[in-house]
């Protein structure tokens, strides 16, 4: 039921990341209605105040908006979502390249690996 | 809330009492039947032995009821309020007064019920043993009425007034006795070691004090008939000195002295009640 | 009135030699889920019993919503003791009725007082507990579940749960924590005393660390994680290292 959390970082920060990922991936579609804080907290097995804090953070970033009577909705600003998604992708790619570099792969070698990926690993997975 | 407390208090205690009452009632009937001499068996030794055994069982059940009345009074207070179950009882939204009253009233009702059941059962036993159709035929409602009239005329209204006072005073004494037990329990609760000894000593101590005051005032003399606490029953003559009671009786009559005795007993009960309540409110420590 | 629980210079000694709580100052806000953490014998149970009026302070003051423990506070405090405390000859359904009789059903006007029997029955059904069973015939785990269901079905401003997850299986533990979360209200605070921190850590707002009868720390859980760079559980292990 409850999610596992990285022990060394604040839970609310991890919730922000997870919620954001769900919005970027479209699990929570643009303009979609979000469950109540309590339900979201219960589903994640976390404190409602912590969940509240995470949602407030998303609201500050413009990904979520609150309607006084109807609850919370994912933003309809697809441009913002796209932009954040591109940003997130860039960050992850940078992180990945950094890791590859740490074991001696140049960006070029890494690209070659990725290009071959679909042919070799992809088949294995199917 | 007191009503709810009483409801659950009776619920918790009734099974034991009803079990014993039922046993006593059945035994009364059986014993009553054996008393009838018309059986051919009646004179055989084995039958007589059986009768003796039944008598012993009968007396044991009566004793068991008496013991239960006492033990249950102590236990319902100590266990239910000062033991594990106290976690529940003391977190209910009720006052200490309600808790103590619920225990007191329940105990009093059971003591009175037990007395009544005892009397009824013995009457039933004797009736079954002695009365047969012939005797029953001679009894009529008119005869009963005659008997009552005779009693009333013979004894006069003073008798009945005294009777009412006796009942009232003894009810107050019963309440005072039970509250004394509760106060002793609360005092014992203050001791970590030798709780039992402390409780018994507290009970004896409080009784000595109460008796000394009794003696000083002469309140014992007012109890006319049966006295539940087995104090001296002495209507005719005061002991040494001139206790307050005698002045009252001399100045205002017997009724006033009974009233004084009643008020005094109620006051003693109130002192025990307040002591119990204060200790429960300010000195409760469930460890 | 702005605090649900306050302690000022609160001390409790048992006899002359044993000090269970030593000059504690503590205040808890409404709408929090608080972990009362500490090893055995650190004073957790003593503090909870003081708040319930089952123990009397040796010194200092303890107040519930501004009131000294008494019938008024007992209405707004729901208590789950760490030991068997219910009359075990009673049937589960009788216990439910008894709680309803004493605490009343929560009303619109006073939603923070009462006992929700329907909710209790629903939870009991969910946990597969036979309402007709007598308490003494239940297993230890089921007995604890019944006690917890009764405590959590109360409408209250302060829930004091002493070791609520000690004896139950992991599935029931999840259900219990979930109940605590879905029961959450801005007007009520839940205090959970335990030494099994890992399980309840994500559920907590703040943690109160008790050490030898003193308050060692009272901090927000995410604050501990942020500044110490470790979970509350790991922090606890470090603080109470033997």
From TrEMBL, chain A:
Q: Name one GO molecular function term.
A: DNA binding
Pfam families, from UniProt? GntR (PF00392)
Keywords annotated in UniProt: DNA-binding, Transcription, Transcription regulation
Protein name as catalogued: GntR family transcriptional regulator
**Top-down, what is the taxonomic lineage of the species of origin?**
Bacteria, Bacillati, Bacillota, Clostridia, Eubacteriales
UniProtKB/TrEMBL annotation, chain B:
The residue ranges crossing the membrane are: 52-74, 109-131, 159-184, 196-213, 247-275
Q: Does the keyword Transmembrane helix apply?
A: yes
Give the record's keywords alphabetically: Membrane, Transmembrane, Transmembrane helix
Write the protein's name. Answer: Uncharacterized protein
From TrEMBL, chain C:
Top-rank taxon of the source lineage equals: Bacteria
Stretches assigned to the ABC transporter domain: 5-237
Per UniProt, what is one Pfam family of this protein? ABC_tran
What UniProt keywords apply to this chain's record, in alphabetical order? ATP-binding, Nucleotide-binding, Transport
What SMART domains does the annotation carry?
AAA
Q: Which InterPro entries match?
A: AAA+_ATPase (IPR003593), ABC_transporter-like_ATP-bd (IPR003439), ABC_Transporter_VariousFunc (IPR051782), P-loop_NTPase (IPR027417)
Q: Name one GO molecular function term.
A: ATP binding
PANTHER family from the UniProt entry: ABC TRANSPORTER ATP-BINDING PROTEIN ALBC-RELATED
Protein name per the record: ABC transporter ATP-binding protein
Organism, by scientific name, is Faecalibacterium hattorii
């Amino acid at each position: 039921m409850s999610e596992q959390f990285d022990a060394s970082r604040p839970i609310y920060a991890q919730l922000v990341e997870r919620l954001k990922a769900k919005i970027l991936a479209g699990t929570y579609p643009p303009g979609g209605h979000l469950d109540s804080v309590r339900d979201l907290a219960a589903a994640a097995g976390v404190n409602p105040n912590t969940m509240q804090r995470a949602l407030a953070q998303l609201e500050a970033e413009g990904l979520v908006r609150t309607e006084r009577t109807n609850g919370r909705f994912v933003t309809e600003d697809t441009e913002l979502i796209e932009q954040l998604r591109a940003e997130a992708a860039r960050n992850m790619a940078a992180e990945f390249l950094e890791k590859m570099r740490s074991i001696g792969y140049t960006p070029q070698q890494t690209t070659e690996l990725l290009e071959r990926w679909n042919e070799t690993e992809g088949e294995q997975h199917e | 809330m007191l009503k709810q407390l009483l409801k659950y208090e009776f619920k918790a205690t009734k099974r034991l009492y009803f079990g014993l009452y039922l046993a006593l009632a059945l035994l009364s009937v059986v014993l009553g039947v054996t008393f009838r001499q018309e059986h051919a068996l009646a004179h055989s030794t084995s039958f007589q032995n059986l009768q003796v055994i039944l008598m012993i069982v009968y007396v044991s059940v009566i004793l068991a009821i008496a013991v239960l009345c006492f033990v249950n009074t102590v236990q319902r207070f100590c266990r239910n309020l000062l033991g594990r179950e106290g976690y529940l009882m003391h977190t209910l939204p009720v006052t200490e007064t309600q808790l103590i009253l619920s225990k007191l009233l329940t105990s009093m009702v059971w003591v009175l019920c037990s007395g009544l059941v005892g009397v009824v059962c013995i009457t039933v036993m004797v009736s079954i043993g002695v009365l047969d159709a012939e005797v029953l035929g001679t009894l009529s409602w008119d005869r009963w009425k005659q008997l009552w009239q005779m009693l009333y005329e013979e004894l006069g209204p003073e008798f009945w007034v005294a009777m009412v006072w006796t009942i009232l005073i003894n009810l107050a004494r019963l309440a005072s006795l039970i509250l004394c037990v509760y106060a002793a329990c609360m005092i014992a609760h203050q001791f970590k070691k030798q709780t039992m000894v402390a409780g018994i000593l507290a009970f004896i101590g409080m009784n000595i004090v109460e008796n000394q005051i009794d003696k000083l005032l002469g309140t014992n003399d007012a109890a006319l008939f049966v006295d539940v606490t087995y104090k001296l029953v002495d209507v005719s003559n005061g002991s040494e000195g001139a206790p307050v009671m005698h002045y009252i009786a001399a100045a205002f009559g017997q009724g006033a002295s009974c009233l004084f005795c009643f008020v005094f007993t109620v006051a003693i009960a109130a002192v025990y009640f307040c002591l119990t309540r204060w200790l429960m409110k300010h000195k409760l420590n469930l460890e | 009135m702005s605090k649900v629980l306050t302690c000022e210079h609160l001390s409790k000694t048992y006899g002359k030699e044993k000090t269970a709580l030593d000059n504690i100052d503590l205040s808890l806000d409404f709408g929090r889920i608080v972990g009362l953490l500490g090893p055995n014998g650190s004073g957790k149970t003593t503090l909870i019993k003081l708040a319930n009026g089952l123990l009397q302070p040796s010194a200092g003051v303890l107040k519930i919503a501004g009131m000294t423990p008494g019938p008024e506070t007992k209405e707004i405090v729901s208590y789950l003791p760490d030991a068997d405390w219910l009359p075990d000859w009673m049937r589960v359904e009788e216990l439910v009725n008894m709680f309803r009789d004493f605490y009343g059903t929560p009303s619109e006007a006073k939603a923070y007082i009462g006992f929700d029997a329907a909710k209790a029955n629903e939870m009991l059904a969910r946990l597969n507990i036979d309402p007709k069973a007598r308490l003494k015939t239940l297993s230890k785990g089921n007995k604890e579940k019944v006690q917890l269901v009764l405590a959590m079905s109360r409408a209250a401003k302060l829930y004091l749960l002493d070791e609520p997850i000690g004896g139950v299986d992991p599935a029931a533990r999840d259900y219990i924590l979930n109940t605590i979360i879905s029961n959450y209200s801005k007007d009520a605070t839940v205090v959970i005393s335990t030494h099994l921190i890992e399980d309840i850590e994500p559920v907590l707002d703040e943690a109160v660390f008790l050490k030898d009868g003193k308050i060692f720390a009272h901090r927000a859980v995410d604050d501990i994680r942020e500044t110490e760079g470790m979970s509350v559980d790991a922090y606890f292990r470090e603080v109470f290292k033997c």
